Each structure stands twice: as structure tokens, then as C-alpha cells.
Amino acid sequence: MANSSAQLRRLGTELRRLRESVGRTQGDVGAAIGRTHASVVNWERGKTRISKSDLVCLLAELHAPAEVRKGLEKLREDAARGTSSWATYGLPDWLRPMLSFEEDATGVTTFEPVLVPGLLQTEEYARAIHTAGRHKVAPEYVEKWVAARMRRQQRLSGPGALTVHAVIAEAVLRLEVGGPEVFGRQLERLCEAASADNITVQVLIADQGGYGGMASNFTMLHFADPAIDPPLGCFDGPLGGHLLSDAGDVATMAKMFDDLREMALPAEDSAELLATILAEHRRKGGTG
């Protein structure tokens, strides 16, 4: 079943289309049903839930056909009943909507300048990230957060498998997170991932110099029908993260990814580099 966040966004998209089809403005219909312009904007963006009574009034004001009303009222009810299953993992508030949308996504494009992308991490590597440094995750959350990351990876196989296109900086392959053995197994995992039909890994080698986006990671989620579910962007760091839905911001992020993809080694050459670095790691005493 689709998650409530995605359902709210779909409901908002349909409400916007319905309003535009009859030539009404957000402020106009808001005033007609006794609600503010901001309320209508937030409904259409899927930012806030619309009450049953407000939806009934809105659909009546827009003269929606009976079959359209029935479908949108059911979508509102489904979204109202839905609760994010990610809440049980104790994840940050900003992250749960992103993971809910990822469940509905068909593709992910991601850039990482320092760490292996979460969808491609081993359990040991993920645990090492969450326990490293002065600002490590509270002990009571570590295993839950690691479990959440492993759950996300279930989307990489089976029917409707998620497609992933990851560009990673060469620095990712030199930072021995978790020590030689843990990092060695992570390199092996990356090599395996690079050979999967639904996963593309490209390495941005160090001699490229400066490039756009080098100060932050970022990820884009892509959906089956972009007209209904436009792409979303997100990025995160030690102090939190943000989910981006603004079309201009997401377009800028897409351009950044395209630039990085063009600068990075092709997938085949990247796979060869991964194998070479893994071999070097093994010679130094890592696992393998």
C-alpha cells in the first residue's frame, strides 16, 4: 500500500489539476469555502491534510463529477488512516517522509562525496558510521537506524526493484570506515553492486579538481509517472537534512547530478577501478 505522505501529495496534485481545469485560482477557491490562500497551497502541495468537510466543500465549489469526488475522498481517507512504518525506528522527523517516498520511487540518483550511499552500505559499515566520532548516534538508536538502512535495501531486488545510479567521489574508496576488515567487505559489496543490472556506480576520480556539489551529498527520488509524482530531492548532514519539492530546486539538483555523471568515469571503468582498489586493500592486509 502506498504511504500516507505520497498519498497526500497525489491528492494535492489532483486537486490542483481539478482547480486549474475550471480556471480558478487558489485564492479564489479558498475564499469561496472560507479558507486562506495558504491553506489551499499547502493542500495542493501535500504539506497539510485536508479535512473531510473541507474536501467536500472544495469539490463542490469546483463542480467535480461524482466519480472524481468518490476517488479523491477515498484517497483522503487512505492518507488519513496511513501511519508511517518508519516511525518505529526512531528516525529524525525530517528523514521519515523521505524514506516513505523512497518506498514508492522507481529510481534513485545519488551523489556522495565522503561515504558509501546508504542503499549500498553493508550492515557493519552502516553501524560504524553511526558510532563514529564525537557526534555519534545515541546507543539506543544505533541498531534501529542500521535496521532501517537494511530494510531500505530490500527494494534493490525482486519485482519492481529500485534502480540506483550512484556517483561517488574517489575519497569514499580511501576512507577506511570501521577499520580494514569492515571496509574491505564494504569494497566487496560495492563491486557486487556495480555488476547488478539495476545499479550503476560511477567514480569521480580525485584529479578532477573542483566540481559543483562537492560540499554536500544529495539524492533524487524518481517516480513512475512524473506528471503525477514529480521528482524529489534531499540532502543531509550531521545537523539534519532537508526534503526538496520545489521544481526549481529539484531541477538544479538534477543538473548538478548530470554534470557529475559526465565528469565521473564511465560505469565500466569505474568497476575496474573498484576492483583495483579492492585488490590493493587486500594486499595491505584487508579482507578478501
Q: How would you portray this structure in words?
A:
- With 288 residues, the chain is an alpha/beta fold.
- The protein folds into two domains: 78 residues, lambda repressor-like DNA-binding domains (434 Repressor (Amino-terminal Domain), Orthogonal Bundle); 198 residues, 2-Layer Sandwich (Endonuclease, Chain A).
- The chain is 49% helix and 12% strand.
- The chain is built from eleven helices and six strands.
- The protein has a six-stranded mixed sheet, sandwiched between helices.
- Strand 2, helix 9 and strand 3 form a beta-alpha-beta unit.
- It is elongated and about 70 Å long.
- The protein starts with a helix and ends in a 5-residue tail after the last helix.
- The model has no long low-confidence stretch (mean pLDDT 88).
- This is Helix-turn-helix transcriptional regulator.
- Pfam families: DUF5753 (PF19054), HTH_31 (PF13560).
Q: What's the quick description here?
A:
With 288 residues, the chain is α/β, with parallel strands linked by helices.
Question: What attributes does this structure have?
Answer:
12% strand, Cro/C1-type_HTH, Helix-turn-helix transcriptional regulator, 288 residues, single chain, Endonuclease, Chain A, DUF5753, Lambda_DNA-bd_dom_sf, alpha/beta, 6-stranded mixed β-sheet, elongated, 434 Repressor (Amino-terminal Domain)
Break the fold down into its secondary structure elements and pairings.
Blueprint: H1 4-21, H2 26-32, H3 37-44, H4 52-61, H5 66-81, H6 95-104, E1 107-112, H7 123-131, H8 139-152, E2 163-169, H9 180-194, E3 199-204, E4 218-222, E5 232-237, E6 240-244, H10 247-263, H11 267-283
Parallel strand pairs: 1-2, 2-3
Antiparallel strand pairs: 1-4, 4-5, 5-6
Helix pairs in contact: 1-5, 2-3, 4-5, 7-8, 9-11
